[in-house]
Amino acid sequence: MNIHNIFLKKEQFTKEDLTVLLASEGENQKLLFEKAKAIKQQYIGNVVHFRGLIEYSNTCSKNCYYCGIRSGNKEISRYTATDEEVLNIAKLVMENRYGSMVLQSGECSNKKVTSHITQLIKEIKRISNNSIGVTLSCGEQSESVYRQWFEAGAHRYLLRIESSNTQLYTKLHPQNKRHDYQSRVQCLESLKKIGYQVGTGVMIGLPFQTIENLAEDLLFFKEKDVDMIGMGPYLVHKQTPMAKYQNELLTIEQRFNLSLNMIASLRILMKDVNIAASTAMQTLNPFGREKAIEVGANIVMPNLTPLKYRENYKLYEDKPSVNEDAEETKNQLEKRILSINHTIGYDQWGDSAHYAESKNNWK
Ligand code: SAM
Ligand code: SF4
Fold first, then answer.
1. Cα–Cα distance for residue pair 232/21, rounded to 1 Å
2. Measured from the CB, is residue 106 less than 6 Å from ligand 1?
3. What ligand has the least distance to the C-alpha of 138?
């Protein structure tokens, strides 16, 4: 189908329509990007919001086949940042005027750990006088833990579905209760019920993944009515079971282009959601994050994790900014974002406009 006719359908895209958008190249890709850019301009504006990221702990009870910090990888040292380190990052977020931070970690549901995270959230809120927005990305937890964290002050949660195709999901994870697809979907539903702004996403260019699978992923985001999406290319980590498929992957350029097409198509499908320009984009292309912003993304997560931990939070190889310190990141990022004619929403939480809109609809 002609790409112009697909655009005319507005948000009522079928899987087939999305597959055409995702496969765009040449002139069609240019049109796709232009459309996404115009929609972002209309619904979001040319503003980027930052989230200071701390990779709080690499301890993980799961063993996802693609991830460098999976529990089966015995070649990394496990760490958990100290309270002082986390609170220093919160102070840095305030100094840098980022407005919000993300606490990300491996999945650990033991009560001592989850209660500790509750205390940390409260402390971040206290020392910042509630000026910092807190996003969590700490995997699957019980509804009561999610509620505890919400009541402590966290208001956004990122839990990527990784792939919404159950067959593909099964190939990416060990076959046991801890890695169950339905439980992950249930977690997204619990988060929404509690009142979080909910974020999800997928990896792009996974072994066995088809373009139709990615079109289904976009429809999944829409059906679940999520507020934020973080997607990025799949990248290989040698110490994982999936590394054995590395010769069967799309080329770096193909994965990068497909990721841009995913972001642009998503912006057209879900006009007012927050979309992250992922670090993995920058791994594939030195200007990957800027390009992602130009075609529809509006969120960047500068990595503020203490340098000594970064080597041990390598989800994939060649993860950028392993040696970059926070000041360097800030200056670089600022310059790069201004150079693509965007401004930075300093001192703001940068909440998803979609969330605000859906709340209004409930009233
Ligand atoms: N443990 C939590 C979870 O899985 O939801 C949060 C941290 S986990 C490291 C964050 C994300 O990293 C995952 O959702 C996954 O999409 C991404 N990731 C892991 N391994 C990756 C890889 N090899 N390439 C690209 N992204 C990867
Ligand atoms: Fe653990 Fe998350 Fe990595 Fe899976 S993706 S192994 S849950 S850190």
1. 17
2. yes
3. 1
Annotate 250-293 with DSSP letters as a single string. Answer: PPHHHHHHHHHHHHHHHHHHSTTSEEEE-HHHHHHSTTHHHHHH
Q: Answer for the pair 352, 302: CB distance below 8 angstroms, yes or no.
A: no
- Residue whose Cα lies nearest atom 5 of ligand 1: it is 139
End-to-end Cα separation, the chain, in angstroms: 40
* 184 Cβ inside 6 Å of ligand 2: no
Q: How many C-beta neighbours within 10 Å does residue 53 have?
A: 22
pLDDT tens digits, residue range 133-180? 999 999 999 999 999 999 999 999 999 999 999 999 999 999 999 999
Residue 358: its pLDDT value, please?
Answer: 72
For ligand 2, atom 4: residue with the closest CA: 64
Q: Are 163 and 204 in contact (CB under 8 A)?
A: no
Look at residue 321 in the predicted model and tell me its pLDDT: 59
DSSP, collapsed to helix, strand or coil, labels residue 104 as strand
The pTM assigned to this predicted structure is: 0.96
CB 67 less than 6 A from any atom of ligand 1: yes
Distance 108 CA to ligand 2 centre (A): 10
pLDDT digits (tens, 9 = 90+) for 328-342: 677 888 899 999 999
CB 188 within 8 A of CB 116: no
Measured by CA distance, the residue closest to atom 2 of ligand 2 is 106
pLDDT of the residue at 83: 98
Query: Which numbered atom of ligand 1 lies nearest the CA of 106?
Result: 1
Nearest to 53 by CA among 233, 262, 278, 263: 278
CA 128: distance to chain centroid?
A: 24
pLDDT < 50: residue spans in the chain? 361-363
The residue count of the chain comes to: 363
Closest to 325 in 3D by CA, of 344, 311, 309, 306: 306
Q: Is 316 in the pocket of ligand 1 (CB under 6 A)?
A: yes
